[in-house]
Amino acid sequence: MLFNYKEHRIFAFSDSHGMHKWLHILEEADILLCAGDVVSGFGKDGMEDFFSWLLSHPAKLYIFVAGNHELLLEDSPEQAKFLLTREIVFLHDTCYEFDRISFGNISTRSLQSKESNIHLAGKMDFLITHIPPEGILDEGRGSLPLLLEVYRSQPRFHVFGHAHS
Questions:
Q1: SUPFAM superfamilies annotated for this entry (predicted)?
Q2: How many Cα atoms within 13 Å fall on the side-chain side of residue 161?
């Protein structure tokens, strides 16, 4: 999906499952948002290839959130540092601001945790999660706590993946 926002061309995608080289990103996209599941398995195999491919596209900003296939990045900060570079912003229950645009994330682990108290700090432009909110394009796999937080915090846009249709 490519769209304009605050003088930027933003391309958002997810769930390439190792087939990222067949994804066409227009050169004019200057912010790339990935909502996870970039590898076909559940380990780090293929991640280096994906991140190299991602960085081969000319952009001002690259933002990545882990999907259920990249949970090792959420579980092991050492793996995240090894696989991600300073050029790629890895959002994990954090917020990031770039050129007056705010981005936030609620991690897959936080959404799966029964004890999690999901609460975003302040209004943001983009909420990027891997898991969808319950009842919204979720194929029955969405998160009710996420839906409630989206209603409460009202991000301008919510980018998510996980449900492939």
A1: Metallo-dependent phosphatases
A2: 24
Q: What value, to the nearest 5°, has the Cα angle with vertex 14 and ends 146 and 76?
A: 75
Contact 89, 63 (CB under 8 A): yes
**pLDDT in single tens digits along all 165 residues of the chain:** 888 999 999 999 998 878 788 888 988 999 999 998 888 766 667 788 889 999 999 999 999 999 888 877 877 777 777 667 779 999 988 899 999 999 999 988 888 776 666 667 778 999 999 999 988 887 788 888 889 889 989 999 999 997 777
Determine the 3-state secondary structure of 143 from DSSP: strand
User: How far is 18 from 16, CA to CA, in rounded Å?
Assistant: 6
* Alpha carbons 58 and 16: distance in angstroms, whole number: 19
> What is the pTM assigned to this prediction?
0.89
Cβ atoms < 10 Å from Cβ of 37: 21
Task: Select from 3.20.20.70, 3.60.21.10, 3.60.150.10, 3.40.50.2000 the CATH code of 2-160.
Answer: 3.60.21.10
* Tally of residues, the chain: 165
Q: 3-class SS at 54? A: helix
